[in-house]
Amino acid sequence: MTNSISDIGQADVIFMIGSNADTGHPTIGLRLHQAVARGAKLIVVDPRGTDFANQADLWLRIKPGTDVALLNGLCHIILEESLWDKEFVKERTENVEELESVTRKYTPSYVSEITGIPENQLFEAARLYAGAGKKSAIYYGMGLAHHASGTDNVKSIANLAMLCGKLGVAGGGVNPLRGQNNVQGACDMGALFNTLPGYVGLTNDEFFAKYEKLWKVRLPRRLGKPATEVWDDILDGNIRGLYVFGEDPVLADPNAGHAIKAIEKLDFMVVQDIFLTDTAKMADVVLPAACYAEKDGTFTCTERRVQRVRKAVDPPGEARPDWKIICDLSQKMGYNMKYDSPREIFEEISSLLPQYSGISYERIEKEGIQWPCPDEEHPGTPVLHIGSFTRGRGLFIPEDYTGPSEPPDEEYPMILTTGREMAQYNFGSMTRKTPGIEEISPEAFAEICQEDADKLGIEEKSWLQITSRRGKIKIRTTITERSQEGTVFIPYHFAEAPVNLLTINSLDRLSRSPEYKVCAIKVELV
């Protein structure tokens, strides 16, 4: 997030796209509701009729997978009507001419045809978001990123915010809502295939030299392997062993049958986790790990805030903190990785990562600090990009719209999209062991609109077979006004209805993130 969670209360306009914060991020969702109750205007872009969509000042009911066309269309209107922040663009950005060129063809009529959003709503959204003197904040979630065009979506969001000068101000900004706890921290630490910790590129010899001097090893300069590409490499014989750490790809990966087939081909797999997940059941060795309440350390949350985590109880049985397991494995494999505590590890992090340089355990004893924090006198950075961008000038990178990888056709005439329910979390390995939560949300239902139900002869709680080109599941239905005609929504928490047997493993060309949010299906009454 460029801004802080507390900034939500200062926004005049909230533009929410690809996120239902009530279910995905309920504490942030509460603050968004409070801001709207206080008087902030709300624009919601969502194919589903969520509670946020129903209370919005403007609900843009978009066809799934057409976000780039919408965002280019808003930029087109803002440029045509001269609503853009000319001073901000002139002083702080470059390449606006390219944005003008690319978005010229995205007229309201053209965008309406692609997205299904009426032209008058496009004008209203553009004028409301771009309004002079208004603090306008964008909030987006995995509904924007989990597409084969995910990076194009995110770049288009940045284009819109820069064009209107909505960055570098409290109450504004571009605010991605991270999908899981400490995803931000994991990325900061280099858990990506193409960067060192701190987002340093693999061509930066100065930083490589620092790591190599400290660790006394020669580090490879080549790109790593994106997690979503591992399965093909296993099936091609390039990878024979796998270490799965806090993930459950048997349920979580798109086209999960493809992942299962690859796992079955492995010579060896070790899984490190706090529960015996479906993936752990296929492992040769399971290493029991301690959960968050059973270990010390830090988390970095979605607003870049580095926070202390303190051990409350001892881990059960043979479970141990992850860092101890990794250190002991390293010793067994011949490298002397020795730390005495999480504090010692964090001191090393602060010595290496520029964003963390001024953060210490003492400073975050009572309250977390938001990076970048370059020195011990620095208070942290609640709002990014005040005065300038990290690269100096902000760069407009416009992209043309490309449709979903697998649009509906005669054989598979409907669209599947997936998401969360508030009571459950991710793939249920934790929440579904809690009786109280199971009472609230015990079963997956496929959401379908009344028009589609009538066509297919479906009644409330009918059993359906839903089939894609990759697999099929059996699930009961609920008839609802939330779903668009031609679209089925299924939550992904339930192993009994493993929705990722259906989803497509088409990948974004840059991030290599999968297209969870759109694939073609057929629906049949059982």
Q: What's the story with the biggest beta sheet?
A: 6 strands, mixed
The name CATH uses for the topology of the largest domain is Rossmann fold
Q: What gap, in angstroms, lies between the N and C termini? A: 45 Å
Into which percent range does the helicity of residues fall? Answer: 25-40%
| Portion in beta strands | 15-25%
Structural class: alpha/beta
Low-confidence segments:
none
How would you state the average pLDDT, rounded?
93
The helix tally amounts to 19
Which geometry do the CA atoms define?
A: globular
Structure characterization notes:
With 526 residues, the chain is of the alpha/beta class. The chain folds into 3 domains: 5-177, 3-Layer(aba) Sandwich (Dimethylsulfoxide Reductase, domain 2), CATH 3.40.228.10; 183-370, Rossmann fold; 414-525, Barwin-like endoglucanases, CATH 2.40.40.20. 31% of the residues lie in helices and 16% in strands. It contains 19 helices and 19 strands. The protein has helices spanning 21-24, 26-38, 51-55, 67-80, 86-92, 96-103, 108-115, 119-130, 142-145, 150-163, 183-188, 205-215, 230-235, 249-252, 256-265, 322-332, 342-352, 435-440, 450-456, and strands at residues 13-17, 41-45, 58-60, 93-94, 136-140, 174-176, 241-245, 268-273, 285-288, 297-300, 305-309, 369-370, 394-395, 414-419, 445-448, 463-467, 472-479, 487-491, 519-525. A 6-stranded mixed beta sheet has the order 15-17-16-19-14-18. Strands 3-2-1-5-6 form a 5-stranded parallel beta sheet. Strand 16 (463-467) and strand 17 (472-479) form a beta hairpin. Helix 7 (108-115) crosses helix 8 (119-130). The two termini are 45 Å apart.
